[in-house]
């Protein structure tokens, strides 16, 4: 690739799988670049920053927001190059490696590529109500950043799936009143979450959709919602509205890269996170293989396996696996600093 700035591995996506792959690539002394579509690293954990994460081995229960801080700090251990707010639009395999083009038109060069894009680029589906966009800067919410912000308020949640019911249950202890407007005759969330609704003060409004928003005198906030029900119209006063109508998933990049996908629109791979295209690997929610573990703990194994295979792809004579951290000289100085802090 001549005088171009070529990386050993370019990781598309900065969620948990991409971040741990970034760390492990540094451990394996690979020149690493991460490109993330959003303005910050952390992936879908940003949707639930106050949700408690329980299922990471050796990690005490921790809010997702704090967990993001930890895995980001770990990922930056070996000073990778990080590119934010750029969408990868093309992955082209050449005789010399890969050319990765972003939405700005910039071309990045790498010897290998890892897809760590979760279920693809995910955008919340906007509510189909005229003029709704003007309330997005005030009290129309597509994510829940802080449970405390709903304290003492009347909240309407529009949606009947897993996330909508989960949010209603999480907000209920803080809010004065919580409604769920579900367009179907029943909820489609997890059975345990639906059962939990029956034990709290959430009121479920079935066969109900949001017809329009009623604004306050400033015309900047929603103060009421007009609902279309099976029996006609119902108007309720609200302080906050939360919408979860699912997400729009864009897998066009993966299709463009000619990576084989299954009927569920996931990348077909193996336990080493190899794909149908040599030099392209995939980790986390986007890859499917026999025995796949869809947990954060499982995605860390994906990341290590993918990086080990990346290393051998670009350096066939390299070791199959990286040296464990307890015996790895890369951590000698860092270990000394940590020991001084702990025992001085």
UniProtKB/TrEMBL annotation:
The keyword Phosphoprotein does not apply. Its cofactor is FAD. InterPro entries: FAD/NAD-bd_sf, FAD/NAD-binding_dom, Fd--NADP_Rdtase_type_2, Ferredoxin-NADP_redctase_2. Coiled coil: none annotated. GO terms for molecular function: ferredoxin-NADP+ reductase activity; flavin adenine dinucleotide binding; NADP binding. Binds 1 FAD per subunit. This is Ferredoxin--NADP reductase. Keywords: FAD, Flavoprotein, Membrane, NADP, Oxidoreductase, Transmembrane, Transmembrane helix. The lineage of its organism: Bacteria, Bacillati, Bacillota, Bacilli, Bacillales. Belongs to the ferredoxin--NADP reductase type 2 family.
């Amino acid at each position: 690739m001549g005088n171009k700035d070529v990386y050993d591995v370019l990781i598309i996506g900065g969620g948990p799988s991409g971040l741990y792959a970034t760390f492990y690539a540094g451990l394996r002394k690979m020149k690493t670049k991460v490109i993330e579509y959003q303005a910050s690293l952390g992936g879908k954990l940003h949707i639930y920053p106050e949700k408690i994460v329980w299922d990471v081995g050796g990690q005490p229960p921790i809010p997702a927001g704090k967990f993001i801080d930890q895995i980001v700090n770990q990922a930056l251990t070996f000073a990778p190059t990080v590119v934010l707010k750029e969408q990868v639009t093309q992955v082209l395999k050449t005789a010399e490696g890969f050319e990765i083009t972003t939405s700005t038109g910039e071309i990045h060069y790498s010897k290998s590529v890892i897809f760590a894009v979760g279920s693809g680029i995910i955008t919340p589906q906007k509510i189909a109500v005229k003029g709704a966009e003007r309330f997005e800067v005030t009290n129309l919410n597509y994510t829940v950043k802080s449970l405390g912000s709903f304290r003492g308020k009347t909240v309407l949640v529009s949606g009947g799936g897993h996330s909508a019911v989960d949010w209603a249950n999480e907000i209920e202890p803080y809010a004065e009143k919580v409604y769920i407007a579900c367009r179907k005759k029943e909820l489609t969330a997890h059975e345990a979450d639906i059962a939990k609704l029956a034990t709290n003060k959430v009121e479920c409004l079935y066969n109900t959709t949001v017809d329009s928003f009623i604004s306050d005198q400033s015309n900047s906030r929603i103060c009421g919602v007009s609902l279309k029900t099976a029996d006609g119209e119902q108007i309720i006063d609200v302080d906050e509205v939360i919408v979860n109508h699912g997400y729009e998933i864009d897998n066009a990049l993966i299709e463009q890269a000619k990576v084989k996908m299954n009927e569920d629109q996931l990348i077909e791979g193996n336990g080493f996170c190899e794909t149908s295209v040599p030099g392209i690997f995939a980790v986390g929610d986007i890859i499917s293989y026999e025995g796949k573990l869809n947990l954060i703990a499982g995605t860390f194994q994906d990341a290590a396996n993918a990086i080990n295979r990346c290393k051998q792809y670009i350096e066939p004579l390299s070791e199959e696996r990286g040296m464990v951290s307890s015996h790895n000289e890369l951590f000698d100085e860092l270990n000394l600093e940590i020991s001084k802090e702990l025992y001085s």
